[in-house]
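User: Okay, second chain of the day. Same drill as before: sequence in, structure tokens out.
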Amino acid sequence: MHSTKYILWQEHGRWCGYLKDHPEHVEQGKSFEELQSKLRRLQRDLSSQGQDSTTQEREQYADRPAEIPYPMPHRTKTNVHLEKIFLSILANLG
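Assistant: Same drill. Structure tokens below.
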């Protein structure tokens, strides 16, 4: 079974998150459970689209620089370091 990783955080009393492989699709929920439900639905929708649409999307945005889809909140020093690594990985994808 394939496991999916999620990036989650709380901001202004709301839960936010996205699928690790799809940072361009940020979801929000009033509760942790609502966010989990939305992310599961997103995972199911993206999985059903198949590889063809993913390939087309990559080609469409191949010439664009990597962008953060949503302003990231402040984190602890350890997470700030991880965020820098994540941003450098995103920048190298393009």
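The two ends are 30 Å apart (CA to CA).

User: Thanks, on to the next one.
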